Each structure stands twice: as structure tokens, then as C-alpha cells.
From TrEMBL:
EC number annotated for this UniProt entry: 2.3.3.21
Enzyme class: transferase
Keywords noted in UniProt: Amino-acid biosynthesis, Branched-chain amino acid biosynthesis, Isoleucine biosynthesis, Transferase
Transferase in keyword set: yes
Claim: Transferase is one of the keywords in the record: yes
Name this protein carries in UniProt: Citramalate synthase
Family statement: Belongs to the alpha-IPM synthase/homocitrate synthase family.
Leader peptide range in chain numbering: none
Pathway(s): Amino-acid biosynthesis; L-isoleucine biosynthesis; 2-oxobutanoate from pyruvate: step 1/3
Domain Pyruvate carboxyltransferase, first and last residues per copy: 4-268
InterPro entries (alphabetical): 2-isopropylmalate_synth_dimer (IPR013709), AIPM/Hcit_synth_CS (IPR002034), Aldolase_TIM (IPR013785), Citramal_synthase (IPR005675), LeuA/HCS_post-cat (IPR054691), LeuA_allosteric_dom_sf (IPR036230), PYR_CT (IPR000891)
Pfam families xrefs: HCS_D2 (PF22617), HMGL-like (PF00682), LeuA_dimer (PF08502)
Organism classification: Bacteria, Thermotogati, Thermotogota, Thermotogae, Petrotogales
GO MF annotations in UniProt: (R)-citramalate synthase activity; 2-isopropylmalate synthase activity
Amino acid sequence: MKEPKLFDTTLRDGTQGENVSLTVEDKLKIAKKLDEYGIDYIEGGWPGSNPKDEEFFKKVQSMSFKNSEIVAFSSTKRYGIKAEDDPNILKLVSSGAKIVTIFAKSWDFHVSQALGISLDDNLKLIEDTITFLKRKGIEVFFDAEHFFDGFYHNQQYAIKTLEVAQNSGASIAVLCDTNGGQTPSKIKEAIEEVKARIKIPLGIHAHNDSGLAVANSLTALQEGVEQIQGTVGGLGERCGNADLCIIIPNLKFKYGSRLPKINVEKTTSLYNYVFEVANLTPDNRIPYVGRSAFTHKGGVHVSAILKNPLTYEHISPEWVGNTRRILVSELSGKSNLKSKLEELGFDITQFSEEQFKKLTLKIKEYEHDGYQFEGADASLKLLVLREFFDYTPNFQVENFNILHYNFGEGTGTEAIVKLKINDETVHAVAEGDGPVNALDMALRKALEDFFPSLKSMKLIDYKVRVLDSASGTAAKVRVLIETSDTDKTWTTVGVSTNIIQASWKALLDSVEYGLFVDNLFPVKEN
């Protein structure tokens, strides 16, 4: 099995996914990150399809890449026009790309139904386009669109498209499962037949509509393909593309590929970076790079993990740049709790067995009441401090009040808080866009003169979860608040049948943690 070439199409095929939109600057940043990671080919976009991609290719020419070649993408020339007169093809030439990917129909059904031309005319489009680009000194990758569907509908014609591309000068024939409906056995069968007829290297471009894009890509590799295409996080149209963040670790750790240029230990970082730039929420459960990929909750599992991680982990998380996490919940045993306390910065030798037992029961009581500490380490740490360290903050809440009023067609909210700070009573009033915002503003107004560091803290996420939908508007709710300062982020939780009360609890924990706890008891970033 040859070392595969890795082809990333996040910037082109990935942007066809729902809710995925990248600016030119976004695409340039991601291209640089992909190069640093070690990707062989980066498909930057289709210069002839939109001004954004044209601008990308103009700007990318001034950048230097250590590992990657930038590839432009296009269809063949249009029917009824010469390649040298087709604006899309000419924009490929002027893009500055040394390599272009040309896609064409290899399924006779698509030729007749989508293009409305004869099968021979479709072959002529492939031949003329590739021949013209080769005369311009450009290397051509040929994407056989819908190849596997075409192969099982009209095998002779599907392979004929590859033969025409090969004879016209294409350097690789990429077999596309465009509809994403194939299975590994079908992929294997088709590639075996293609290899008997086609001499140029083969590639695979698999979509994930059956959830098999990674499996199909790895099967193709075993059958001898030399290029694997995919995207970071599997981004792409419909159900997405083959996920390179899964494929690459599998190649390295399951298939024994050397991947000499790839920095596999940066896979998690790459995934998080792309999703951050694209303003997408990362999938916690994605293999290898998800936040939950090496997360352990059940007490039996954690007990074994602490003795030897191989008991419940197929690789070390550090190999892909991820981290191991131990959760504390109603399923937890003593092993979970001890590991979590160490993670939070506590010296577990300070705790007696009776204290461990008491704290475990306390956590289970809280979670029975609707609390969840799996994603709220800051509230968990405050709970431990209050139970065993005689901890109290430098301010106490005496009361708060919310006023809601109407003016014309508009509404307003005002919050009043009364605090005791270092034995001094302080009142503060503030208006906000809603009750939580008004409370946040009033609390800050009361505290900032005493604690200036509060000015660097900001609420960056606010989530509400209804815990008992059968109770309707009287249901208990859980509120999670994520807060950040210049150095770190932390998450707190509050629960109540009153959404304002639940929010207030989480908000108080957030402020209390940020002002006092991290300084008194350092903790790893949440």
C-alpha cells in the first residue's frame, strides 16, 4: 500500500455545506493552517463561479506554502464552445494555479438528464478541456463525478470517461461517490475492475450520505488508490464529505502509514481552528478530535482508566492533540471524583474517605435536583470549597428585584441589587435588554469599584435547558453560563423552576469564581 496523497477540499466542497460561509480572509487563514498541518493538496475553490474565489486565487499567489499545492476547480468547458473561448476555463488559466481539478459526468444517466447531450459529446468535453489545459502547462486531476453510480448503471461508459481523461493527459483519475450511497464492498468491486483498465493513479472522493465516507475511503486505499479527498470535520453538502480528521489518524495509527509531512498531533487543533473560523459549533462526539472522544464518566471505566488508559482508550489522546477528561455525575464513583478534584487543582490527600463519600452523595443530590456538573467545572469547584474549605466570597447578596415596564410599543427591564461588600451595604440599579442582562449590569455596577478586574470578564454564552417539559411554563430549567477574561474561560450552572433565579445562581457563581476562586485555588482552564 503506497503512502497516500491527502487532498483537502474544505475551502471548496466544504463551503457547500449548510451554514458554512467563509470570507476570502477566512479561506487564506485556513489554507495556511492546512499547509502547516502537512496536507498535500488544498482545493481553494472554483475561480469561474464567483468573485470570492477569484479574489482568493489572486491573494494566495503572494503566499508561500511549505507542504501544500493550491488547486483550482472547475467543470469541463461548456457544450458548443471551444475550451479556449470558455470564460470558466480561461479563469482557471489566469488563476495562477499549477494544478486544476476538472470534473465531468461519468454516469450516462446524468449526461442525458442533467446535460441533455449525447454520450459521445460528453467524452469530447472531457478530451478538449484536458487537452487545452495541458497545452497551457497545467497539471490536471480528473474528477469522475457520480462514478460509482455510473459504474453500476453502465460500466463500459463510466470507465470510458476515465480512459478519455487518461489519454488526454490527466495525471490522476478520482473516483467520486457523489451521492454518498455506496458501501465498502461496492467500492472494492468497482476499483478492482478500474485498475485492470486504467494505468494512471486513482483517487477517491466520498460523500457521507450513508455514513460510510470514511470506510469507503479507507477501503479504496486498501485497493490501491493513491489520493484521498476529504474535508476537515467532514464539512460539505448534505451529509458532508469524508472527514480527514478521522481518516488521517486512522491511516497513521491503524494502517501504519508514515505520513511524513503530516503533524498528526495537531489534528484536534486543526479541527477546532477551522470550526472557529467558520463560526461553527464543534461536534463533541466526533472520533479522535471531539471533546468527548476521550471523556470518561462511568465509575468502573474511570477506575480502570486510572490504572491503565488502554483499558478504555484505543489510542492516547495526546497523539492527536486531544486530552482525557473525567466527568463527575450521578454515575460517578470515587475514582471519578478523585481524578476530577486533582484536575481542579485540589490535593486529594487533604480529603478523608468520609469526605469523599459525603461529596459524592452531595453531587448526586444536586444532579437529582437537575444540576449537571459535567460542563460546569467552576460551579463544581465552588461546591467543594463551600463544603470543605469554609470558603465565603467577599460579597454577599441581601436581595434583588426585577422591574419590567412598557413604553409605547417597546419594553424595558430594570434590576436592583443589594449587596454587602466588606461589611458595607451597596445598592445598584441598572437597565438591560432583559432580566438577565439587567441583573448582570446591576451586579457589575455594584462590584466594579471594589473589584476592578471584573471589567475584563464578559459573558460569552448563555444556555437554557427545560428539564421537565410536561410541566409547561412551570418546568424546572437549567442555565449554563460561560464566562471569559483575558486568560481563560469557565462555566457555571444554576437550576430553578424560576428562570431568573436559575440565571442569577449561575451568574453569581460566574462572578464569584472569576474574582476569587482562581486566585486562591488555581485551576486548569475549563
